[in-house]
Amino acid sequence: MALPMTYARRKQLRKNNGAAPVFRTEPFGRKLLTQLFQNILSLNATFAYDKQIMGDLVVFMREQAGVLALAKGHDLGGEFMSWWFDERPNTTELEHDLRLTALEAACSLALERAQAVDYVNVRSFGTRTTPAIITIIDTINAWMMEDGFGFQYQDGQLIEVTSQFAYQEVVVPALAILASPIFEAANSEFRDAFEEFKQRNYDDCIADCGKAFESVIKVIAAQKDWTDVDVNSNASALIKALYDHELIPSWMQEQMKGLRMMLMGVATVRNKEGGHGAGSVPRIVEKQLAAYQLNQTAAAIMFLTEQAGFA
Predict the structure, then answer these.
(1) What is the pLDDT of residues 6-29, one digit of tens each?
(2) Collapsing DSSP states into helix, strand and coil, what is residue 24?
(3) How far is it, in rounded angstroms, from Cα 300 to Cα 213?
(4) Distance of alpha carbon 120 from alpha carbon 43, whole angstroms
C-alpha cells in the first residue's frame, strides 16, 4: 500500500535520500497514535451498525488489561479513544504492549467479521467487504513503516520488523510460501518464533526458528520421497540429505561452502542458545541474536523451497 505522494512526503523522501528508516519498537508517538486510531475507526465504520467491531474490541481489551473499564467515556468508542490516547511520558512497557494487542486485535476482528459478512453478502448481493478491510490494514502498515515504527500486521499477527529490506524481500515471501497447507507445521512454528520475539522470549524464538527450519526440510523430503529422512531426523542429518540428494546441485557445492555453514547455522544457534536447558547459570539471549536468527531462517526457507520447486 503506497501512501499519497504529498508535497510533505516528497520533501521527506528527498531529505532521506532513499535511506531505509531506523525502526523503533516504542513509543508510538502522538502522530502515529492518531493515524492508527483513525484507521481503527475506519475498520469499525466499514460494517453496518450491528456488525461493527468496537464493542468486541473494547470487551476483549478490558479482559486483557484486567479492568472493568479501559477509561471514562460516554460510549464504547469514547472509552476506547480515552484509553488509546492516554500515553504519558512514563507509559509502562505493559501499557505499550496492550496498545499493540489492541491494534492486532482490531485488524484480526475486522478480517474475521468481513469474511463472515461476505459469506452471506456474496450470495445475496454479490458484494464483498474483505477488500476494503485489507486496504485499511495496508494503510495501517504503511503508516507504521513511514513512521519507522517497527511492526507490521501480517496474516493474523503483528510482526516486529528489524530491517525494512529483510522484511520486504525475505520475511514476507517466506511467510507466503509457508501459507501452503503442506507447510502447516512449519508455518505455525515460524509464526510462534515471531510471537516469542515480540514477547521478548528470545531463547524460545530461536528454538522455534530451528523447529520451523527442520519442518521445512522434512516436508521437502516427504514430497520427494527421500527414504533416508524421517520425522526423527535431526538437523545435521536433514542438511546432509539436502546435499546427498543434490537439492543443492553437486557442481555448486564447492562454490557454496558458505551456504552449508549458513544452513548449519540455523541449527547451531538453536542448539547453543535456544534448544537446551539453561542449567545452573541463567542464559541471556540478546535481541539482536534472535532477530538475526529470524532473518536467517526466513532466508534459508526461501532458498530451499525455491530449489525444491515450491516457490
Answers:
(1) 767 666 656 654 444 456 777 888
(2) strand
(3) 8
(4) 19
Amino acid letter for position 3: L
Residue 222 · residue 197 · CB < 8 Å: no
Side chain identity at 86, as an amino acid letter?
D
Task: Tell the burial category of 311 from Cβ atoms under 10 Å away from its Cβ (0-12, 13-18, 19+).
Answer: middle
* 27 prior amide bond cis, ω within 30: yes
Place of cell 450470495: 123
**Rounded CA gap, 53 and 42, in Å?**
11
Residue that is written with C-alpha cell 532477530 in the block: 291
Residue entry with cell 459469506: 119
Q: Nine-digit cell at 294?
A: 529470524
DSSP 151: E
Q: Can you give 31-57 as a three-state secondary structure string?
A: HHHHHHHHHHHHHHHCCCHHHCCHHHH
Q: For the segment 158-182, what is each residue's pLDDT rounded down to a tens digit?
A: 988 866 667 777 888 888 899 899 9
* pTM listed for this prediction: 0.65
Give the span between the Cα atoms of 230 and 20, in whole angstroms: 43
